[in-house]
Each structure stands twice: as structure tokens, then as C-alpha cells.
Write a structure and sequence with these properties.
alpha/beta; Aspartate Aminotransferase, domain 2; 2 domains; Aspartate Aminotransferase, domain 1; 15 helices; 4-stranded parallel beta sheet
Length: 407
């Protein structure tokens, strides 16, 4: 596959440590991924040798920081397949990106009674901002269920739309089920009906190639800390037509040209939507992380993770006392599960941790999906590009211990 997972693992210093006397098996990538040494080095260098504020200085360090910071805009555009880097706005992550869409675009373009279509497997970050509009503006939220395998039918999404639908906001990949949604079909159908599309790219952008131009979406936010980059970093692609319909969401320095007692003249986009001193070093680190991923090849990463998915699916299917949620054929390498009996997800996670296996436990910020599935909480093992089939075996061994303890 042209992908050497052991060489990749060597780039991540934390993967060599032990937890509870066991080799660390890190399977919590859906929440946050580990960082390669090149990202750690870039952050250290930025703080120790190159730090200054950006845009407003004329001295050497400010110019250098600005050059590196602004250079990341082109890196993100290339990573997401955007035609123009000015369609990239830096954020602290997907949550801020979606709120930017809610306050900057939806609040300006939706009215009482207008509708937003969502799927039941959305992360709370792609639910709560729309509830704000429901509470404050009288916008209606329309929900579309997933099928028994966890798939979202694009036709069902479009059938949920009416002449009052102004926005479809769905995930590209579920952080609980691993389902990959056919968002291209949704975006094309939505564009034909003049409905805007907000595609949550938090998970999909990590695990497979993404081309927003090909997808035809209007908004596509991503999160840096899931992309092997620093926390507090991220970006959102916004189609130029939609950006022209937006008003600034946060006011402050650098998003303005002039400020007077009776007038404010805003800066051009994308700076118009980036107020205040940004996460300079975080953004520089994000650029290094994306370059690292593109250097490995997103197709290679996706192929490696498909191999992991298939192996994990086979091993987990062999545990007849394990209840796995989500059976989409083309899902990503994300597995949420419960054990038959009374074992709570937190108890399972604690036992796994004693074996050095790190998984997530709880509702995974997906309350509506949990309600839909009739599950109060689950464990989630989410794989990344540095995970191996041996680590799948370690997960299975730890789960068998859980079964012995709780059966």
C-alpha cells in the first residue's frame, strides 16, 4: 500500500510509552489524535525562535510569523480541495466553524418558520447552534433517521426538505457509527433546490481524501486536534457565494479596516471573519500536521484504515456477547459497542484502561443518536493511521477479560 505503519508510529513519541505497565494502545482518536514529532518541533520552534503577533507588525519576527501563519491557508485549501485559499477561514475547531455559520450566515438569511434538516447522528456541535436559532428565531429543526445499519439515505434527507428548508446540516462521517454519508449526492440535490449545505468534516477529513469542490458543499469545517495537529486549531471552507451573504460573527481587531465613532468599515474576507489575535502557533502546527498527512498520502491512510476496519470487524463479530452499533458496509474504522448484561460503558472502559487500551465511554456528544438506538452509553474504539492489527488483538483480549468479569 506504500504505507509503513511502523515508520509512522516512530514519528509519534507518545506511542512508545506504557500505561498501567502495559504498552499504550491508543484507540480514542475520534476524540483527539496524538501529535507527530514534526508538529511538536514546529510548535517549540515557533515559541522559542519565531514568535510574534501577526499582520500588524513591520519588524522581522512579525513578518516571519505572518508568512508562516498565512501560508497555512493555502495548505488547508490544498488539503480540502478548495479552489481559492480566501475561502478558508481559520477557527479554533469545528465547533467555532459551525457557530460561525449559525451566527454569520443563518441568522442573516433565515426567518421564523424556516427549516434546518439534520440527521439523528449529528454531534452536539452540529445540533446546539441550530437549537439557538430555534429558541431565538423560531427556526424549525427537521430530523432524519438512519436505517438499521446506521446508513443515512440521501433521498430521505431530500424528502424531508420543503419549500421552507434553507439549510441541510449533516456529518460526513459519524463519530459514533463510523458511517460515511454520501454528502455529494445531498449537496448536488440541495444546490438544485437552492438549499445551503453545512457538512461536518471533523471525522471524514482525518480518514479519507476530501475535495469540497467536488462535493459541492457550501460549508465544511474541520478540527485540528483530530488531524494530528494542536488543540485550539481548525478551519472552515466557505463557498464564495455564501461568504458574500455573511456578516461578521465576532468583532475586534484585524477584521476591520477603519473604526470611527459612527461607522465601522470591515476588512475583506477571510480576515473579516477572524477577529482578534488568532491561535498563531496552533495554526502553524496545523499546517505542519496537514503537510505530514499529505506527505503520507490520504489515499494510503484511507487504505490502511480500511484494512484495520475489516480486521477489527472480523475480530469483534466473533464476540457473540458484544453489541456493536453501526454496520454500514463502507464505514470508517470506528466501533461503538456495549456488552450484554449490566456492565456500564464506564466500567468497561476502566477495565480496558488497566490493560493499556484507551477508548472513549459515554454518549460521545450524540444524544439524539443514543435515543434513536435505545442506548444510554457505549464504549468507542476509534482507529487512526498509526494503529495496527496487533492493537486490534489487544482490544479483543481486553474485551474478553471484561466479559469474564461482568458476565
Amino acid at each position: 500500500m506504500g504505507f509503513d505503519v511502523e515508520a509512522v508510529r516512530a514519528d509519534f513519541p507518545i506511542l512508545s510509552r506504557e500505561v498501567n505497565g502495559k504498552p499504550l494502545v491508543y484507540l480514542d482518536n475520534g476524540a483527539s489524535a496524538q501529535k507527530p514529532q514534526v508538529v511538536i518541533d514546529a510548535i517549540t520552534k515557533a515559541y522559542t525562535q519565531e514568535y510574534s503577533n501577526v499582520h500588524r507588525g513591520l519588524h522581522y519576527l512579525s513578518n516571519l510569523a505572518t508568512e508562516k501563519y498565512e501560508g497555512v491557508r493555502g495548505i488547508v485549501a490544498r488539503f480540502l480541495g478548495a479552489e481559492d485559499e480566501t475561502s478558508i477561514i481559520f477557527t479554533s475547531g469545528t465547533t467555532e466553524g459551525i457557530n460561525l455559520v449559525a451566527y454569520g450566515w443563518a441568522m442573516e438569511n433565515l426567518r421564523e418558520g424556516d427549516e434546518i434538516v439534520l440527521s439523528v447522528m449529528e454531534h452536539h456541535a452540529n445540533i446546539v447552534p441550530w437549537h439557538f436559532l430555534r429558541e431565538r428565531m423560531g427556526v424549525k429543526l427537521v430530523w432524519v433517521d438512519v436505517d438499521v445499519n446506521g446508513d443515512l439515505d440521501p433521498q430521505a434527507v431530500m424528502e424531508a426538505c420543503t419549500d421552507r428548508t434553507k439549510l441541510i446540516a449533516v456529518t460526513h462521517m459519524s463519530n459514533v457509527l463510523g458511517t460515511v454519508v454520501d454528502v455529494k449526492t445531498i449537496c448536488q440535490a440541495a444546490r438544485a433546490r437552492a438549499i445551503a449545505t453545512m457538512i461536518d468534516g471533523s471525522q471524514a477529513s482525518v480518514h479519507m481524501p476530501v475535495n469540497v469542490t467536488d462535493l459541492g458543499c457550501d460549508f465544511y469545517p474541520v478540527t485540528g486536534h483530530k488531524l494530528y495537529g494542536p488543540s485550539g486549531s481548525g478551519a472552515i471552507y466557505i463557498h464564495p457565494d455564501r461568504m458574500a451573504e455573511m456578516r461578521p460573527f465576532i468583532g475586534g481587531g484585524d477584521m476591520i479596516r477603519e473604526v470611527h465613532k459612527d461607522e465601522v468599515i470591515y476588512n475583506d474576507a477571510p480576515f473579516k471573519f477572524e477577529a482578534g489575535t488568532p491561535g498563531i502557533v496552533q495554526t502553524i502546527g496545523l499546517g505542519v500536521a496537514l503537510d505530514y498527512m499529505m506527505g503520507l498520502g490520504m489515499d494510503n491512510i484511507a487504505a490502511h484504515e480500511r484494512h484495520l476496519r475489516d480486521y477489527a470487524r472480523e475480530r469483534l463479530d466473533g464476540l457473540n456477547w458484544l453489541n456493536v452499533q453501526g454496520h454500514s458496509a463502507g464505514k470508517g474504522a470506528i466501533f461503538s459497542f456495549t456488552l450484554e448484561g449490566a456492565a456500564h460503558a464506564h466500567d468497561i472502559s476502566t477495565v480496558l484502561d488497566k490493560k493499556g487500551v484507551a477508548v472513549r465511554a459515554g454518549q460521545h456528544c450524540c444524544g439524539p443518536l443514543m435515543d434513536h438506538m435505545g442506548v444510554t452509553a457505549s464504549c468507542r474504539a476509534s482507529f487512526g493511521m498509526y494503529n495496527t492489527t496487533d492493537e486490534v488483538d489487544s482490544l479483543v483480549d481486553a474485551l474478553e477479560l471484561c466479559h469474564k468479569l461482568f458476565a
